[in-house]
Amino acid sequence: SVLLRSPVSPHHHLNPSAEAMEQPVFDGGESSSAPGKLPHWASNLEDNVDKHLLIMLRDGRKLIGCLRTFDQFANLLVEHVVERHILFEEKVYADVYLGTMLIRGENVCLFGEVDPARPNGALTEASLAYVLRKEAELEADENGKGKRRPMDIFADQVESL
């Protein structure tokens, strides 16, 4: 059966209970017409094994790498991972190589296949130093204006006093 997590409080994402975090998305008991067939939620993951993916995490990071496998918790094993830093206004990016990562399933917002014909889309590569410096300047400007980015992009927005 597929287990759906029902939040205990509207702020469950700030302090999830250990019990909810340890329950699998799929517990293996789902009946299927074909033995060994994956549950319906896993078919998209299975279709993307050994493909180059863009993975967006709850904290806003964007990772690119090759999905090798996954488990019943939707944890992802990804190889050749880079963290992509993007300056959207300038349409430039820089990558930081991270290697092989095991990404906890609950931290994944979305993922999709990178087009092999256009792996960088409309973006142009820039130096890492330049992109990181501009990111720091943009963050300093936002902080100066009283804007704070949530640690979790799904968290409720907090207005500064």
What labels describe this entry?
six-stranded mixed beta sheet, single chain, alpha+beta, 29% strand, disordered N terminus, 161 residues, 17% helix, 6 strands, globular
Number of strands: 6
Note the beta-strand portion: 25-35%
Q: What portion of residues is helical? A: 10-25%
Walk across the major sheet and give the strand order.
Answer: 5-1-2-3-4-6
- Pattern of helices and strands: HHEEEEEEH
Q: Profile the largest sheet.
A: 6 strands, mixed
- What's the end-to-end separation, in Å? 46 Å
Number of alpha- plus pi-helical segments: 3
* Low-pLDDT stretches: 1-18
Mean pLDDT: 79
Verbal overview:
This protein has 161 residues and is an alpha+beta fold. The chain contains three helices and six strands; from the N terminus they run H-H-E-E-E-E-E-E-H. The protein has helices at residues 18-22, 43-47, 128-144; strands spanning 52-57, 62-70, 76-87, 92-103, 108-113, 124-125. A six-stranded mixed sheet has the order 5-1-2-3-4-6. The N and C termini lie far apart (46 Å).
Provide a short characterization of the protein structure.
The protein contains three helices and six strands, in the order ααββββββα.
